[in-house]
Amino acid sequence: MTTPRPAPATTLAFDDAMERVREGGGRITRARRVLLEDLYDVGGRITAEELAERHDDIDLATVYRSLAHFEEVGVVEHVHLGHGPAAYRWSGARTIAAVCDHCGAVTDIPADELDALAARLDDRYGLRLSLGHFALSVHCPACS
Ligand SMILES: [Zn+2]
Ligand SMILES: [Zn+2]
Questions:
Q1: For residue range 35-89, what is the model confidence (pLDDT) as tens digits?
Q2: Contacts 24+ apart (CB under 8 A), 57-62
Q3: Which of 56, 96, 118, 127 has the greatest number of C-beta atoms within 10 Å?
């Protein structure tokens, strides 16, 4: 078993996450515990396929079911980085992914960089900017 260490830039502690999963009606199976530890340890984004590849004894369907439950209780979140599969990460990080259209490089930027835009959209159009579900589409410095 890996020892959970503090993941950077997140506010959700591992034990609190376990508690939420338990309270959410999810049994803490060995697979779920292992996957949750993985997501915490990775500290970044990982796809369901990559998670499954790390564990011969956990099939992809179990990974998807577990991730769905983790999302339901708010301990992980997913983002669409481009045309590929959704990537999951530990909840609570206040960063947004910016993905290069050309080379696919992912840069994490602080979410508050977009506060001014969010406020303006809200003021002018009553639109609440929903950040985090889709990545920003950019050209990275190397590709510009
Ligand atoms: Zn690029
Ligand atoms: Zn989605």
A1: 999 999 988 899 999 999 999 999 999 999 999 999 999 999 999 988 888 999 9
A2: 57/31, 58/31, 58/34, 62/31
A3: 96
Residue 48 domain-assigned (yes or no): yes
- Which two tokens mark 32? 């779920």
| Environment of ion ligand 1 (residues, CB < 5 A) | 100, 102-103, 105, 140, 143
How would DSSP label each residue in 65-114? HHHHHHHHTTSEEEEB-SSS--EEEETT--EEEEEETTT--EEEEEGGGG
The ligand whose atoms approach the alpha carbon of 87 most closely is: 2
35 shares its domain with 65: yes
Q: Helices 30-42 and 60-72 sit at what angle, rounded to 10 degrees? A: 70
